[in-house]
Specification:
The protein has about 500 residues and is of the alpha+beta class. It has 2 domains: about 280 residues, 2-methylcitrate dehydratase PrpD (Orthogonal Bundle); about 140 residues, 2-methylcitrate dehydratase PrpD (60s Ribosomal Protein L30, Chain: A), CATH 3.30.1330.120. The chain is built from 20 helices and 8 strands. α4 runs antiparallel to α5. The protein is globular, with a radius of gyration of 22 Å. One of its GO terms (molecular function) is aconitate hydratase activity. It comes from Corynebacterium callunae DSM 20147. Keywords: Lyase, Tricarboxylic acid cycle.
Length: about 500
């Protein structure tokens, strides 16, 4: 890997295009390096993972709305597929619909470093572009290796959330780069597409603050849609604002740490394999990633507690990110509101820890149900939980050593009789260094579990056969899953829109 120093440059400075971060990313995307076998296998795992969470979310209202928007944009020639239904649709709208399905339940893969991300968000738009372009499985593998690589590398070196910029600002460029690889575009075209994608997908973090709406699921899907459109414009000869990151009125100068700050972005050297996907990790539980390890910790501790009503207080000692984003450091009263949206409860470690402690389990639907959130004893316990930042957990969160990097917490439970129970966990059980790491078997089991009652067994097996033969797959539409009409009929009615 090569570490690239990135900073603001005045317009009057001599700053050749070849030095722009967007150009260096475009060079990585255009590099025809072979994809290593481990990366190939993990790409297949993550396509299975995305299909699993899409099955679990397909009948929910936001996913239904996005699907019906896509249905308004059919194409007669070869197009992209929309999860759950037959037909061909415009790639950018298929990307939106499938992206919402993937993100709605906050249940797919994650990467955390200086910034955080869900790199699996690259799959819906890159796959949609590949289907519309008539690309092969081998093309898709190369493209997704790039998408993951670029997003992970940006996340490693450039923090967005400290400036209240949403993390999808790294997704637009990574999708554009991935599609550039997919279509074998030249460096200059990919460069322009990356600039346009970043320019049109930079938004504030209010989508993940306070009363969180379903836009949380639409935001990354919208970024993928914008990236497809950016590539299309760049292919037609249109340019982008540049230098997009380093310009004196650019992203770094005005949206991030300012004109005097330097970022270090690691990128593969020419001919270096793209392996970043191997540093990412999926979720066993449908919740914010920083909740994964605490859920496992709560299940373990809950099994040792006979009566949770005897708890006086619970303090979770954890990282800066966990404390300020999903903990009491956020100062969001909504995180203690039983009437809060599912998306808000998903970002409340206090609620999540209380339910997991009581139930010694976590479920993507029942754990968030209004009935569950309104249980009086849960509300009482919920309000007894607080978080504090612990410098050591913050340090481990940002560690570059994968065996030391941690996203956990230490729980201190004080009982009414004065006794104290303490335990801690560094990584989730499903993490590569956890108690039960996910491999192909676990990804398939997650898919079959979430697909039960939604996707017919025959369709499940057809999909699993197709995806596991991805390197030799000629028709990428085989990766789409269709649902029986009677299943789709269970989707909620939604008002008509404009499109």
């Amino acid at each position: 890997m090569i570490d690239h120093t990135v900073r603001t440059h005045r317009s009057a400075e001599d700053f050749p295009k070849s030095e722009h971060l967007a150009y260096k990313i475009a060079q990585v995307a255009a590099d025809p390096v072979a994809v290593p076998e481990e990366t190939r296998d993990m790409i297949i795992n993550r396509i299975i993972d995305n299909a699993a969470v899409s099955a679990a979310s397909v009948l929910r209202r936001p996913v239904t709305v996005a699907r019906r928007q896509a249905e308004s944009h059919p194409v007669s020639a070869s197009g992209a597929a929309v999860f759950g239904i037959p037909g061909s649709f415009s790639a950018e709208w298929a990307a939106l619909a499938n992206g919402v399905a993937v993100r709605e339940l906050d249940f797919h893969d994650t990467f955390l470093a200086a910034e955080y991300s869900h790199p699996g968000d690259n799959i819906p738009p890159i796959l949609a572009a590949a289907q519309q372009a008539g690309s092969t499985g081998e093309d898709l593998i190369r493209a997704l290796a790039t998408g993951y690589e670029i997003q992970v590398d940006l996340v490693r070196g450039m923090c967005l959330h400290e400036h209240k910029i949403d993390h999808v600002a790294h997704l637009g460029p990574s999708v554009a780069a991935g599609i550039g690889t997919l279509l074998n575009l030249d460096v200059d075209t990919i460069y322009q597409a990356i600039g346009q994608a970043l320019h049109t997908t930079t938004a504030t973090r209010q989508s993940r603050k306070g009363e969180i709406s379903s836009w949380k699921a639409f935001a990354p899907a919208f970024a993928g849609k914008m990236a497809i459109e950016a590539v299309d414009r760049a292919m037609r000869g249109e340019g982008a604002p540049s230098p997009i990151w380093e310009g004196e009125d650019g992203v770094i100068a005005w949206l991030l740490s300012g004109p005097d700050h330097e970022y270090t972005i690691p990128l593969p050297a020419a001919g270096e394999e793209k392996r970043a996907i191997l540093d990412t990790f999926t979720k066993e539980h449908s919740a914010e990633y920083q909740s994964q390890a605490p859920i496992d910790l709560a299940r373990r501790m809950g099994a040792q507690i006979e009566d949770t009503t005897q708890i006086e207080s619970i303090v979770l000692h954890t990282s800066h990110h966990t404390h300020y984003v999903i903990g009491t450091g956020s100062n969001d009263p909504q995180k203690f509101d039983p009437d809060a949206s599912r998306e808000t409860l998903d970002h409340s470690i206090m609620y999540i820890f209380a339910v997991a402690l009581e139930d010694q389990a976590w479920h993507h639907e029942t754990s968030y149900s209004p009935e569950r959130a309104h249980r009086p004893e849960t509300i009482e316990l919920w309000k007894k939980i607080s978080t504090v930042e612990d410098a050591e957990w913050t340090r481990r969160y940002h560690s570059t050593d994968p065996q030391e990097k941690a996203f956990g917490a230490r729980a201190v439970i004080t009982f009414k009789d004065g006794s104290v129970m303490e335990d801690e966990i560094a990584v989730a059980d499903a993490h590569p260094y956890g108690a039960r790491p996910f491999a192909r078997e676990q990804y398939i089991n997650k898919f079959k579990t979430l697909a039960a009652g939604v996707i017919s067994e025959a369709e499940q097996e057809r999909f699993l056969t197709a995806v596991q033969s991805l390197p030799n797959l000629a028709d990428l539409r085989e990766l789409n899953i269709e649902l029986a009409p009677e299943v789709l009929a269970k989707a909620p009615e939604t008002p008509k829109g404009l499109l």
